[in-house]
Amino acid sequence: MAMCGIVGYVGEREALPIVLGSLQRIEYRGYDSCGILVQDSANGQVYMHKGLESIDELMEILPLCDYHGNIGIGHTRWATHGTPSVRNAHPHLDCNGEIAVVHNGIIENFQSLKEGLLRNCRFRSDTDTEVIPHLIENTLMRIRDSGESGEELLKDAIRESLSYLKGSYAIIVAIKGFDGLIAARRESPLIIGVGDRENFIASDVPAVLEQTNRVIYLEEGDIAVVKKDGIYIENGAVEVKRVVRLIPWTIEDAEKGGYEHFMLKEIHEEPKAIIDTLRGYLTETGIELGFDARHDIMMVACGTSYYAALCGKYIIEHIARIPVQVELASEFNYSDTVLGDDKTVIAMTQSGETADTLMALKKAKRFGCHTVAITNVVGSSVTRIADDTVYIRAGPEIGVAATKSFIAQLVTIYLLGLYLADIPRHDLEGWIEELKRLPQLAQMVIDDSNAVIQDIARYLAGFENVFFVGRGVNLPVALEGALKLKEISYIHAEGYAAGELKHGPFALLTNATPVVAILSNDNVYEKLLGNIKEIKARDAPVVAVAVEGDDEIEKYVDAVIRVPATRALLSPIPNSVALHLLAYWAAKARGCEIDKPRNLAKSVTVE
Length: 607
Ligand code: M6R
What we know:
Blueprint: E1 5-10, H1 15-25, E2 33-39, E3 46-51, H2 55-61, E4 71-77, E5 92-93, E6 99-107, H3 110-117, H4 131-144, H5 150-163, E7 167-175, E8 180-186, E9 191-194, E10 199-202, H6 206-209, E11 214-217, E12 222-227, E13 230-235, E14 238-239, E15 245-246, H7 251-255, H8 262-268, H9 270-281, E16 296-301, H10 303-319, E17 324-328, H11 329-332, E18 343-348, H12 355-366, E19 370-375, H13 381-385, E20 388-391, H14 404-420, H15 425-460, E21 465-470, H16 474-489, E22 492-497, E23 515-518, H17 525-536, E24 542-547, E25 559-563, H18 572-589
Parallel strand pairs: 16-17, 16-18, 18-19, 19-20, 21-22, 21-23, 23-24, 24-25
Antiparallel strand pairs: 1-4, 1-10, 2-3, 2-4, 5-6, 6-7, 7-8, 8-12, 9-10, 9-11, 11-15, 12-13, 13-14
The structure holds 5-amino-5-deoxy-1-O-phosphono-D-mannitol.
């Protein structure tokens, strides 16, 4: 489960209200189901509730007297494996109901582990997580005979069980009769809140801030035994000491991970969105998306998702040599376009709830087309209409501006292009290697170019009109750059095909209309350079987004935002990260309300 929230409490107070309160503090991340487990160390009783209710509702319906105990764990689920349902909600238990696990992350090899475990265990959910309690149970049974007991036995069993897992996890394990909780992390954040004769565990700092501002950040590979009056941490079976940090944030700051806005936090999460999306579909032998497409592809979408789909046309046509048609959902719905049933129609929608896109997909179904949803939200309406679904795994996106979801949509499209392509194995491997570099390249834009982008954004913030131009696969990137700028900074921005400016918009070019040009090392580079010279001849200031090492561009433009080089077809990723930052800093310079721009909503459920 990627992007779930997990919490734990061990102390002297009643665990239930503390666990629910902590879950409430991370509700802003979004969830589709939740669960809690409370353990009474005095009499060994365990109480569990899982459901589709909100945390507020749980606070109403769970009577404290029935859920009595001072050890507790809780989970808010944002589904990735298995639909949102009671059976898939956490905690997940071993066969005897004595080992309970809440998990954030993705267990990549859960299928093969599950097959091995099925001989002895009864699985009750469709989740990847459930292999963990069963693995711990099996390992415990096996090593119990070695003569070890108590805490040492538990640590050994958990250490060994975790060594079988591939993928990412932050987990909290509650074991019946044990007077503490065991927590562990790999590639998913996990913290311990340090209290007085009580301790807290959580995936996110806001979950514990109401109780304590003393926090230990667990490190990669750490396993911690957390009791009410002690915390033991080991790494590689050796005890380690971790510093206790004082968190100076308010709860609101902490929800944003210390960033001023969700949008900035989400741009910083773009590298992770790429990793998680790739991780979901790369297999040992290549790429698996789980469906067969028909001969022709059509994509329907709105807004930023439409621009991702437009990139998809360039990408899929180049890699797979399959014709791709892209339509704005709102236009397609009332058009006379007739579709043959030899088409696969793909709805691109991060929320899965956009009314125009849902309507377009239903129309495609009426023509007998094969339908596929590409979305970020498990169980969303589009998944119930489409024949097949591919999840983009960006994690919850709170800012109205789509940022990390756009990046994850692009990654999904690269995967789709390669999945559909009939190319030699060696070429496929070359593409996959380069895809795996993308998180690092996105991170380089964030780390190395942010200062320059801030300067340029402050400069652009002084204008009322900005053009964004690109060619080829970077044309939709220019359109997305313009949409992002106008949406959050309220600067009028137009995205244009660079070769089209001379057919009309040239009339608008003056020294008061800056132009942002998006380049890459591709077959249209020289052409775009020619367009830039024409623009400069009309006095318009030009900002280029160009790759490191392109020395030529500096001669023709006023400022350059540098991005790391990759294959030209993959350049929309680093370029878009740069444009998201540009829009953010311009809006910030103009004092706009960035996360909730006026008149806009995160999902547009009306036609
Ligand atoms: O949820 P969807 O991807 O279907 O949303 C489509 C558009 O409403 C959305 O991309 C919108 O344009 C964003 N505000 C752009 O940042």
